[in-house]
Design goal:
Layout (H helix, E strand, L loop, with lengths): L1 H11 L7 E7 L6 E2 L4 E2 H6 L3 E8 L2 E9 L7 E4 L3 E7 L23 H11 L3 H10 L6 E6 L6 E6 L4 E6 L27 H11 L6 H8 L9 E8 L4 E6 L10
Antiparallel strand pairs: 1-11, 2-3, 4-5, 5-6, 6-7, 7-8, 8-9, 9-10, 11-12
Helix pairs in contact: 5-6
Bound molecules: 2-acetamido-2-deoxy-beta-D-glucopyranose (4 copies).
Length: 259
């Protein structure tokens, strides 16, 4: 049966394993803390601006995105049946701040990270195509690009400096690596001890097991503190095979970590 299923998958192009891609968007650290409500000022201001946008060409959806109203870059997006893409901040001496703060960055030689993601979502037509563009375009600041494809095993974290790509970390089912997970630290280094969201998130994933992974169980992982924290503005869940993009504006009830 196993061989037959693999054969059918190969011929029909329908992947053996569904590919999910999900994220929390955390933003607003150290940009003002409201002592009365115990919240981050910018984080709270962003929440009502969360919008889902369909980008169309000839009246047909090319890609969908969860964004902030008035922000033209893309931080979370899906090209139905082709690929899914999110961006994550990477702090580095060479980098400076990215994300919303790109707006106020000076003039440098390179591309605004979330404009690159927009261009990729607009014009790349496959996982490989997107991967090459994300790995090779010169940027203004370092970043992690998290990319999912439409075939079994297509999923990676691209670790970028402004100039080049340090590492592409891919799903490897044969090695038992059925997911890749990124929380703002290089995956080959330990996370900063005051901000370890990786260990709890991995603990949840491993407890769920590959067999039981669904958008619902992933939502549970992203709702577990401190993966969910006071910087979390929204949670997005994507399923490339159906083109589904669902986003939820979040709140983290006390007691809750500030980050
Ligand atoms: C675009 O599509 C929508 C619904 O899918 C339809 O109502 C509308 O008439 C279409 N517009 C044009 C210009 O074809
Ligand atoms: C995956 O994407 C490729 C490239 O866009 C496309 O040709 C193929 O039909 C897609 N496969 C599935 C199962 O959606
Ligand atoms: C995508 O490609 C089209 C056609 O080549 C081009 O006009 C457009 O500017 C590109 N979009 C972006 C965001 O670069
Ligand atoms: C997976 O889900 C099934 C059905 O909900 C449940 O019975 C089983 O205990 C779950 N397995 C794990 C490892 O959580």
């Amino acid at each position: 049966f196993n061989e037959e299923i693999k054969g059918l998958a190969a011929v029909s192009g329908v992947p053996l394993g569904n590919i999910y891609h999900a994220r929390n968007l955390d933003f607003g650290l150290f940009m003002g803390w409201d002592r009365k409500t115990h919240t981050w000022t910018i984080t709270e201001k962003l929440k009502p601006l969360v919008v889902n946008v369909d980008f169309k060409r000839n009246n047909k959806t090319v890609f969908k995105s969860t964004s902030f109203a008035g922000y033209v870059g893309m931080l979370t997006g899906i090209r139905p049946k082709e690929f899914t893409l999110t961006v994550n901040e990477r702090f580095s001496v060479d980098g400076g701040y990215i994300g919303i703060l790109e707006w106020i960055l000076g003039q440098r030689d390179g591309m605004w990270m979330s404009f690159l993601t927009r261009r990729v979502l607009e014009n790349a037509t496959s996982y490989e195509d997107a991967k090459n563009e994300l790995a090779q375009t010169k940027l203004l600041a370092p970043a992690y690009f998290i990319l999912g494809g439409n075939q079994t095993g297509q999923g990676c974290v691209i670790t970028r400096t402004r100039i080049n790509t340090l590492d592409i970390w891919e799903i490897a089912l044969k090695l038992g690596r059925w997911y890749v997970l990124e929380t703002n630290y290089d995956h080959w280094e330990e996370p900063f001890f005051l901000d370890d969201r990786r260990t709890p998130a991995m603990k949840c994933m491993n407890k769920i097991t590959q067999a039981n992974i669904t958008l619902q169980t992933i939502y549970d992982v992203l709702s577990t503190k401190p993966v969910l924290n006071k910087l979390t503005t929204y949670t997005s869940l994507m399923e490339v095979s159906t083109g589904k993009l669902e986003s939820y504006i979040r709140a983290c009830p006390n007691p809750c970590n500030p980050w």
